[in-house]
Here is the input.
Amino acid sequence: MAKVEFKNLRVSFGASPVITGVNLSIPDRSITALMGPSGSGKSTILRVLNRLIELYPEARVSGEVYLDGQNIFDMNVLELRRKVQMIFQIPNPIPNLSIFENVALGLKLNRLVRGRGELFERVKSALEKAQLWDEVRNRLDMPAGKLSGGQQQRLCVARALAFEPEVLLADEPTANLDPENTAKVEALFLELKKEMTIVLVTHYPPQAARISDYAAFLYKGQIVEWGPTKDIFTKPGHELTEKYVTGRLY
Amino acid sequence: MTAERKAENITAVRMVINWLGLGLFALLGVAAVVPLFLIIGDVYVKGIDAINRLGGLWHFLTGLPPTPYEESGGIGPMLVGTLYMTVLGALLGIAVGFPLGVYIGEMRREKFANVARAGVNVLVEFPTIVIGLFVYAVMSLAKEDLNLYLLDPLSRTISPVGGWITQFIGPLDGFNAYAGAAALSIIMIPYVALITASAYASIEQPLREAAYATGGREFNALFVVLRKAVSRAVLTAALLGTAKIAGETAPLLFTAFGNFYYAPFTGPTAAVPLWVWYAAQTPYEVQIASAYGAAAVLLTIILTIFIIARIRG
Here is the structure.
């Protein structure tokens, strides 16, 4: 069964429609890439999935979204966000907080741990999974803002992983990183997909080709085509898809 | 004239104009700062001289104010009253102003938030004497019922604690420190609220989303996670607001009223700015001198808070 299922999702901001009827199912323990030109609605889909869309007062959402067969709009939003964590385009650690606190904060605020020992273990394991532990183990008290951009992004991954999420949303997570850090994050995702479902938004087709198992091509708020990544890139069924994956449509 | 010569001349002219311009700006800068230093200098020169004549610093900070026929005296009751009312007013101002600021800054989807914002914008420019008058009116209306039903029984219940408690809690007079603190807090609330609101409004969307994604409940996202991002601005606002209300006179005229003695906070309470206002108008040299001393003390309190705010901010 699909981990996540969108049924006729429509989103508009004020009068302008952004998503106009999306149907998509996302398989468990895999990386699904949502790709498409700017403004095609990729990020909006992610923000529906963890209901961060509700921070935008002018957004109107209709249709259904299921996580493990449960309608997410009927779920407790806190439980949903615990299961569905997100990494953003711009690394956004909480300023004025230490490296340790950045990862620990969500666990503390949501009362997911009992006692300091368990907290430390969870933070350590999250940092290890995010492949940042070795670089920061001796300076956990340092302000997170002093890390490099690539490290900050992996810190944000650790912050998300601390929740032990079932679904990890990544909104162009490497858009602001250099090639070396991009490679690190991509390798990390390939490791993480063994344990969770990853939905990766990218506007860079080669990235989708490199690491995703499934790919969906969005254009103007609709899914033009979706399927196994290999098929999308080698035998696209639609002219627009072909143009996009060959770099002729931005 | 060769081309190079001409270029050199143009450069020289430009440098002269540049110097003239910079000099003019420097002059304007000096003109802006001169009054500040004149005021500070005048207050400290006369104030320190007065403090020395009236019996030294310690006596001045703790003693009773001089009667017209005394040689020495201080502003002890005024200092205590000002500290008490300022701290209370600031705590109340922050306690109300901060959440209010979050509300009008962050809850823009709520219609009432706009109404609140407009209200706060008006209140921040309100004549402070009107605020004092308002609190006086409320106090006059509420005092008797408040005393009869709440404060009399309360003071009887807590009297076994000791006599000192009656200095703080008991039936209220028409003028009292709590009315003064309330008036001061009303001045502080819009000030803290507006700075908090603009600090929250300037939070970038990625950080806001991170806060909601990790914070869970909206309360946590707003007051725990995002507060870390704005805490400096809010702390500065709180300190500057405190400095502002510490020196306010007008709102205390109808509320604290002033006093010459150490007295329970439930009755008329002394305050440093009130003493400056009162003593400087008297025809007695010794009281005028003590007004200068009091002004120097007040200025010291306010400048200290300003410097702390500068360093922390």
